[in-house]
Design a protein that fits this description.
Elements (H helix, E strand, L loop, with lengths): L19 E3 L4 H11 L9 H7 L1 E3 L8 E2 L15 E2 L27 H15 L3 H9 L5 H18 L19 H11 L3 H7 L8 H25 L3 E5 L3 E3 L2 E11 L5 E10 L4 H15 L7 E6 L6 H14 L4 E3 L6 H7 L4 H17 L3 H14 L4 H11 L9 H21 L7 H14 L2 H24 L3 H23 L1 H18 L8 H6 L9 H24 L2 H8 L5 H7 L6 H4 L12 H12 L12 H5 L8 H11 L12 H12 L7 H8 L7 H11 L8
Parallel strand pairs: 5-9, 9-10
Antiparallel strand pairs: 1-2, 3-4, 5-7, 6-7, 7-8
């Protein structure tokens, strides 16, 4: 069953969602529809096959083709509320290469032979049905089991595409499979006269569908993943990306994405599924690699980069996995993932209790203000109170705080600018003197207030702000345009030198940080003290602990060390060389005003480019081509635009280097290429925990892979050869 319109180049289902309608079962009407669509490749399909597996969207019908008097709630029929008239024929085709103004495009003249052939076809329609019978006989008759499996798969795929859990109880009932969505849709088809289901279950309705459901879900998962992996294999090199582990069915699962450049030289990032993320970190690393290579059939020797977004207790496990991957496949360099600001990514996997307190409070703040727009009004009023003489500054902060400011590259700096106003806001909400807020809101306000008035929070926030200031501009450029990324590469040495200077003079820097924290705490009337859990651990020990020494040892020093270590790991020499290949972009070449190619960076791909021996000469020609810009001429300024150049094929080494650079997770995807990540986040955020499924998430996120029911039935029969027909 197709989930898009059969008309070529029709955007329905991709960028323009329209109702879809089945082809008619009647052969004559079906042929009329097919003629209008100009799909010669489907002429061999029978009317029954067209009816089952192909759709036409509503935008190709005139308004008069709809029967406005008929309304229905549709499950498998294809329009939300409207029904086509019995004699409706598509007549609206506006796209390029499609019939125009209700008429099929034809040549200016029709030859005598073609006219005779057309008349012959008309006579065949009026003649007895022998020719049609002969055509049908050429199509192998499906056995009942195959038809039955296709029916079940159709239902399951429809549920998956719409993100409807097939096994979730309906109407609050909990009486087993009979009340689940999968069962309900199958019974709807059965009641509508589906002959396949009727023949199968008239005698025994109680055994309906339950035995096959788990096996069908497994087969769907295998099929979708095989399609994703097949796309990766066809395009060669790829990078591996993982997200924050999530809990599904009681176990931690690691989401895996694969990024590559397709045959059209466009970025692609696909969701490949979940890996079980449980167990000892060393055994787990080996297990994850084995799962991807053996069960997923992923050729890890083609992996050229890896990036991970993991925080808290899971960070040690993901680091062990990253190390194991580099150990086995040295070309899979560890990189930064562009989906989060660099400053936030570095803080996320920092094992410092004060830092984790800051990050968890940030999440609470974001959830708090999402509960009501009136809370934002309250916050902005508090900002005005603390900036009475700085209206420009107040307006700037208000504008920033209307966005997801806790996830900004400069989020720690913004937090310090608004922390006093934020405390005033949450305290006012918690007091709730005018009874405007419900208990949930006031409780959230209290929790945030407790965190903001903890000196450990204040100290950790100030350390984060000052340390991250050294890399803030670097991280911002990494998420900018190609020319910004190129300049960021050149500035890395200075960034690392600044961090080293801070580490070498940590006593002096800590004194500045501590004094700043004490002054802010005094302004907010917060007592300076060490965390209670630390005092409890020190009970019975001799000597007292100075607050200054505690925060130096447990916040400042580990935070600086962590950032330096992570920056060195994430931005290795090979990673910087790969980023240096941004110099291949024509606009950057022209801007540098240099005729000398930067061959050293491209040499990082010497084992992967097709002809390393000709690299120098090829780069020289490439530089000469783009080193001078004519008056009014524009050069490509992005990776995508450079890859789309018609004559890049004459520079095979350059084209390969650009493709390899494009899969680097450090670089942000084009807006149209991050669909998988957006769908993934939508599934995880909106699907209730009790019905989340690793398998269903996979084909919900990848519902556009192009399902072939015949291939899926074949896979089912191959996977479960011992399965017997349901009685």
């Amino acid at each position: 069953m197709q989930n898009h319109c059969v008309v070529l180049d029709c955007p329905s289902g991709i960028s323009d969602f329209q109702a879809l309608f089945r082809f008619p079962r009647d052969p004559n009407r079906s042929e009329k529809w097919l003629e209008q669509c100009q799909r010669d490749d489907l002429k061999e399909k029978s009317a029954e096959q067209l009816y089952k597996y192909y759709r036409l969207c509503g935008k190709h019908f005139e308004a008069s083709a709809f029967d406005s008097g008929l309304r229905c709630v549709l499950l498998f029929q294809d329009a939300p509320g409207s029904v086509l008239k019995a004699d409706a024929v598509p007549s609206v085709f506006d796209g390029p290469g499609q019939p125009q103004s209700g008429q099929v495009k034809r040549g200016k003249e029709t030859t005598k032979d073609s006219e005779t052939e057309r008349r012959g076809r008309k006579r065949m329609k009026k003649a007895p049905a022998e020719p049609i019978t002969e055509t049908v006989q050429n199509v192998p008759e499906e056995d009942e089991k195959q038809k039955y499996l296709k029916t079940l798969l159709e239902v399951l795929l429809l549920l998956g595409e719409q993100s409807i859990p097939p096994f979730a109880p309906c109407n609050g009932k909990d009486d087993g499979l009979k009340s689940c969505n999968f069962q309900a849709l199958l019974e709807y088809r059965l009641n509508c006269g589906d002959e396949v289901l009727k023949n199968r279950f008239d005698s025994s309705r109680q055994n309906c569908f339950s035995n096959e459901l788990d096996m069908l879900i497994t087969v769907c998962e295998q099929y979708v993943r095989s399609k994703v992996i097949e796309g990766v294999k066809q395009n060669g090199f790829f990078s591996l990306l993982t997200g924050e582990p999530v809990k599904i069915s009681g176990e931690w699962c690691l989401p895996v994405f694969l990024r590559y450049v397709d045959q059209l030289k466009s970025h692609q990032e696909k969701f490949a599924g979940f890996l079980t993320f449980e167990g000892d970190e060393n055994d787990l690393a080996e297990k994850l690699l084995s799962e991807m290579t053996d069960r997923w059939d992923l050729d890890m020797s083609q992996c050229r980069a890896q990036a991970h977004a993991c925080s808290g207790t899971h960070s040690r496990k993901i680091k062990a996995f990253a190390s194991k991957l580099v150990e086995k496949y040295p070309k899979a360099i560890l990189t930064f993932r562009s989906t989060n600001p660099l400053t936030l990514s570095l803080a996320n996997n920092m094992g410092v209790s004060g830092v984790q307190l800051v990050l968890s409070t940030f999440k609470q703040i974001e959830l708090f203000f999402s509960q009501s727009p009136l809370l934002q009004v309250e916050f902005e009023h508090a900002i005005s109170i603390f900036y009475p003489d700085k209206e420009d500054k107040a307006e700037e902060l208000k504008k920033i705080c209307r966005t997801s400011w806790t996830r900004r590259n400069d989020g720690f700096e913004v937090a310090l600018d608004v922390i006093e106003a934020l405390l005033l806001c949450v305290d006012s909400v918690h007091d709730n003197e005018d009874m405007r807020w419900n208990d949930q809101v006031t409780h959230s306000a209290l929790e945030i207030s407790k965190a903001l008035t903890d000196f450990e929070f204040i100290m950790a926030l100030i350390v984060l702000k000052n340390v991250m200031l050294l890399i803030q501009a670097f991280g911002k450029n990494l998420q900018g345009k190609a020319v910004d990324i190129h300049s960021a590469t050149a500035s890395l040495t200075a960034v690392l030198q600044s961090l080293k200077e801070m580490s070498d003079n940590i006593d002096v820097y800590h004194d500045f940080f501590y004094d700043e924290a004490v002054n802010l705490a005094a302004a907010m009337e917060i007592p300076v003290k060490v965390p209670r859990f630390f005092l409890m651990k020190r009970q019975g020990e001799d000597g007292s602990t100075q607050e200054d020494d505690y925060y130096k040892e447990h916040v400042t020093v580990p935070a600086v060390k962590h950032v330096i270590g992570e920056m060195n790991d994430l931005f290795s020499q090979d990673h910087i060389k790969v980023l240096g290949c941004m110099c291949l972009i024509p606009d950057i070449i022209e801007g540098k005003k240099s005729t000398q190619p930067d061959e050293e960076s491209v040499q990082v791909f010497s084992d992967d480019i097709p002809n390393a021996g000709s690299l120098s000469a090829e780069l020289h020609c490439w530089w000469v081509k783009w080193s001078k810009k004519g008056k009014g001429e524009t050069f490509p300024s992005s990776l995508h635009d450079t890859l789309q150049l018609a004559d890049v094929k004459f520079f095979p080494n350059v084209m390969t280097a650009l493709r390899l650079l494009s899969i680097l997770p450090t670089l942000a995807l084009e807006d149209t290429s991050d669909v998988a990540l957006k769908r993934y986040r939508m599934y995880i955020e909106n699907m209730p925990d009790n019905v989340k499924s690793k398998s269903l998430a996979l084909f919900n996120i990848n519902y556009d892979v192009g399902f072939d029911l015949d291939s899926m039935v074949e896979l089912y029969q191959k996977t479960y050869p011992e399965s017997q027909e349901v009685s």
